[in-house]
Write a structure and sequence with these properties.
binds uracil, alpha/beta, about 30% helix, binds 1-O-pyrophosphono-5-O-phosphono-alpha-D-ribofuranose
Length: about 210
């Protein structure tokens, strides 16, 4: 069973409040998503393996740690997941980026895949899949399935806000994938929107409606 981590750091919680607020405009929304993603990235990288190296400080020779050569890949689910890439790239600047294009059909709420482009060595990378919203879970499950079909083995899912229904679907379909979120909300409404949520993440990030 995949584990679910809720990042309750006060800075994350504070910023999520303003992300949710309907009076927050596009520019500020985008900046806040970027900032929260960096803060979540700090937590998500906590278990990265280290290796010892030897360096010369101006004073002495010493042993010190660096990140072991783990290959990381970021995979935003288009469109809204793109808003979380730069925030992670600040911490992991050498990460390669794959893209999975999905949209949720507004009538059926089923995900429709329209684009997949991944680094060629995807099987060797530790992949962080990003999407601000985990609602029914259909899009995340489809993205994870698309990645595994192309060889991905080591996957994490990072979202800002999740509904219990989406968490359950990912846990049922991809029990090997841990889920990292800033908040778990109450339920989905009749249109499949997370309540209280933040509305339509893509529209709020890109100013569309
Ligand atoms: C949103 C969101 C997720 C999906 C979540 O994308 O960014 O990808 O809905 O819903 P689900 O868990 O029920 O599948 P949307 O389909 O609106 O596409 P967009 O990012 O292109 O706006
Ligand atoms: N997609 C969104 O952008 N918001 C939701 O609440 C649900 C799906």
């Amino acid at each position: 069973m995949s584990r679910v981590y809720v990042f309750d750091h006060p800075l994350i919680q504070h910023k999520v409040t303003f992300i949710r607020d309907k009076n927050t405009g596009t520019k500020e929304f985008r900046e806040l998503v970027d900032e929260v993603t960096t803060l979540m990235g700090y937590e998500i990288t906590r278990e990265m393996p280290l290796e010892e190296t030897t360096i010369e400080t101006p004073v002495a020779t010493c042993k010190s740690n660096v990140i072991a050569g783990k290959k990381v890949g970021l995979v935003p689910i288009l469109r809204a997941g793109l808003g979380m890439v730069d925030g992670l790239m600040k911490l992991i600047p050498a990460a390669k980026v794959g893209h999975v294009g999905l949209y949720r059909d507004p009538e059926t709420l089923q995900p429709v895949e329209y684009y997949v482009k991944l680094p060629s060595d995807v099987a060797e990378r530790e992949l962080i899949v990003t999407d601000p919203m985990l609602a029914t879970g259909g899009s995340a499950v489809a993205a994870l399935t698309a990645l595994k079909k192309r060889g991905a083995k080591n996957l994490k899912l990072m979202c800002l806000i999740a509904a219990p229904e989406g968490i359950k679907m990912v846990q049922d379909e991809h029990p090997d994938v841990d889920i990292y979120v800033a908040a778990i909300d109450e339920y989905l409404n009749d249109h499949g929107y997370i309540v209280p949520g933040l509305g339509d993440a893509g529209d709020r990030l890109y100013g569309t409606k």
